[in-house]
Amino acid sequence: MTTATPRHKIVDGIPCFSEDRYWGKAPKEELEKALAVIQEQGWDEFRRRYKDAFDATFEENRADWRFPIPLSRDSVVLDAGAGMGRSSIPLARVVGKVVAVDPSFLRMKFLKLRAEKEGLKNIDVYVGDLFDVPFEKGSFDLIVMNGLLEWIGATDKYTEPREAQLAALRLAKDLLKDGGHLYIGIENRAAFAYLYALDHSGLRFTSYLPRPMADWYCRLRKGARYDTYTYTARGYRKLLSEAGFGAADFYLVYPGYNCPRITIPYGDLNLLAYVIRRLMPQNSWRRRLASRLAGVRPLLVLYRSIFFSFNIIAKK
Ligand SMILES: C[S@@+](CC[C@H](N)C(=O)[O-])C[C@H]1O[C@@H](n2cnc3c(N)ncnc32)[C@H](O)[C@@H]1O
């Protein structure tokens, strides 16, 4: 199934295929301290002290995007860019094996501890850049890229971010068994939310700009290139097709791909209209207005084009 090169080192029981690259919303030292708290004072203390400090979650519904994918106790899953295990933990409860890979050593250490706490013996963790981890072709039934593809361009292995993303998708296709699935959870480049929220670049409006202009702006403001590319649904379809995947299923996911509470097939505008109406408080002017607007098809199409994020499921 999976193989390791003889050249990797093992730190705290974790095979490391790349140099540690810390990643996270809190400083590295904070996570180091938190790991010490887990080991010395236990999980209750960790949860009390570090509520919302990292993107760890104890909610089990974060991999609910998995329902359209046939998974069983025989399935082998690669969680690429696994982070703190948002997907790995719930998946490990329903599949045979989860292989979690992330270049951030502390995140993998956290996930290893978390798997031990949950009594999940079927999660293998590796420190590694997706491009460096030597798995055999055709090893996996499912590859998970939840919040990964947009960060893949931040590498010196490829000069063009899109080339890096394409290479990652081609690699994923090679690593999948025939008939296996790739899941991608990611933002929409044209999301309305980017009018008021920061783009992945840490700056405003960069996803809306033409790439060369966004690049110029990032270099001016941050002294670094723009490499966190997101796309519209059409852009993702093109990328997947260039990587050799056939038709992919797209879903609109509410409130966002990281928390898939409501999942609407991209083509189902009637269901989108229904959800818009139902999300508004009963007997309110907001529901009456939403009902009116959701009845106008061009407005629904416009709303879909600025929806926050997508779940994408492609089959090899
Ligand atoms: C937004 S976080 C998502 C984490 C996790 N998938 C989740 O859903 O919570 C992005 C993760 O991708 C990892 N990452 C970034 N570049 C990577 C690469 N080239 N190969 C593998 N993982 C990478 C980061 O270390 C980080 O943990």
Q: What class would the helix/strand composition place it in?
A: alpha/beta
- The number of E-state strands comes to 10
CATH architecture of the largest domain: 3-Layer(aba) Sandwich
Strand content: 15-25%
Identify every distinct bound molecule in the structure, by name, code or SMILES.
Answer: S-adenosylmethionine
Share of helix, binned = 25-40%
Mean pLDDT: 95
Query: Low-confidence spans: pLDDT under 50, at least 5 residues?
Result: none
Overall geometric form: globular
Assign the CATH superfamily of the largest domain: Vaccinia Virus protein VP39
The level 1 CATH classification of the largest domain is Alpha Beta
CATH fold-type name of the largest domain:
Rossmann fold
For the record, give the distance between the C-alpha atoms at the N and C termini, rounded to a whole number. 18 Å
Query: What's the helix-strand series?
Result: EEHHEHEHEEHEHHEEHHHE
Oligomeric category:
single chain
Largest sheet: 8 strands, mixed
Count of separate DSSP helical elements: 10
The neighbouring-strand order within the major sheet is 5-4-3-6-7-10-8-9
Number of domains: 2
Q: How does this model look, in words?
A:
With 316 residues, the chain is of the alpha/beta class. The protein folds into 2 domains: 9-257 and 308-315, Vaccinia Virus protein VP39 (Rossmann fold, 3-Layer(aba) Sandwich); 264-305, no CATH class. It contains 10 helices and 10 strands. The strands form 2 sheets. Strands 5-4-3-6-7-10-8-9 form an 8-stranded mixed beta sheet, with helices on both faces. A two-stranded antiparallel sheet has the order 1-2. The longest helix is centred in the middle third of the chain and has 15 residues, at 161-175. It is globular and about 60 Å long. The two termini are 18 Å apart. The site of S-adenosylmethionine has 21 residues, from strand 4.
